[in-house]
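Quick one - inputs below.
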Amino acid sequence: MSEHILVVDDSASIRQMVEVTLKSANYQVTLASDGQEAFDLCKSKSFDFVLTDQNMPRMDGLTLIKSLRGLATYRTKPIVVLTTEATDEMKARGKAAGATGWMIKPFDPAKLLQVASKVLG
Amino acid sequence: MNIKGFFSKPIYQLSFGLIVSLLIGLLLFQFLPKEVVLIIVIAACYLSGYTALKTHSVMDSTDTQDFNQDNSATPAHPQFADIQSVQNQLLQSFVSTLFECKQNIEEANSVKSDAISTLSESFTQQKELAELQQERVTHLLAADDEESWLACVAKETSLTLEQIVATTAHMSEESMDILEKVEKINSSVPDVLKAMKDIDQIASQTNLLALNAAIEAARAGEAGRGFAVVADEVRSLSTRSSGFSHQIQAKLQNMAQQIESLTQDISQVASQDVTYVSEAKKNVQDSIQKLMSNATDNKEHTAALEEHNRTLQQSLFDAMRGLQFGDITSQSLIYTNTKIEKISQLLEELMEPQAIVNKEKLQQLINELSTFNEAGHNPVSATSMQSGDIDLF
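Output:
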């Protein structure tokens, strides 16, 4: 059974491109369009890896990470932020919130697969 | 000179208008395309000039009435109201221009989102097709492996042909050997026949001798009777011997004919040209070589196809990276839109009565804009579509 990845982004085109990229490497993919939807999904399901955007309506990426780290299932699961935010300050905030990594958009599909493989390995 | 007095001078009014226009231009330059900013600044400058000229004209018509000395002038004064009206028009034009900009940005965003959606679907389909192509190419490469059935068939056929050629050559050699032996036998037949004729000759002479003996026995009378019996027996033997000799000769003749016929047949077999088998073998091997060569060509083609496929895959990955401009520009445009909305809001406040000539109010608006700018930041820092940095903590 392949690893199950949750992709969280309010942009439909980004969700689709990430989904296509991950599925090409035979990962299972579930999509959520904001942090709140992702958090609701995570409460009932255990994903192996969460890839989230930062700026989203209802709940942003850092809030989602803090919320997930409060759940026993997601205390140590890899959660990587995929965002346009590139400042050191935002990265530091992400690290403090419990993010496993920080990827700046635009992402390269091959590099995304490398990151997925590394954090899931 | 108070503020009202200051604005009553056309030159001061023009200067203030130009400075405000340039300041607004500099502010907008961060968020709007330079062409739009330029149009706004030119329009603002034009209106400043128009306002100043209008004021000058009003002052001329009132025969140099000095508002500096008229500290009791109120907004209700016809000339001041006129100036304020023009100022409001100016501000209104800023608001409407900005509103138009906002509408344009929203429309562009909508069109771009639609285009991105279409392109995304198209590229997704292309990627799926590339994967299917890759699958077929992999099958082709597996079928054309060196250890494929074609190589096995070629090897087996070559072995069989070798065996056929060897067997045929062996048969040819044996035929020649048989022919040689049969010819030897055939060549001995005349000698045998000659020997048989000699026997026949001896029998004939014996018969003649026995006849003479019988004659001599008859002459001898009674004394020769016994000898006559022996002579008769000898004649009889010679006659039988001669008869056997004829029979044997006849059979030998028959045998000689059959051997002659056999020699001809064997000679015909042995003289067959077996080189055609070697040629046939060579032809078949050439054909197999061509088949193998074609198979190698196919393998090269399929390998090239696989390389093309890898390139296509990379190209699609690049396209996918490029397509992310939709999300990136959206975030930037949304942020710019909030800026424009804020500016629009401040300009509306500036349009309130006396606001434009109220120092405290102007300072408040400047502070408000400054606070707004410090509170937010553009979430997008990318200036190109190169893939962004990755940090794993």
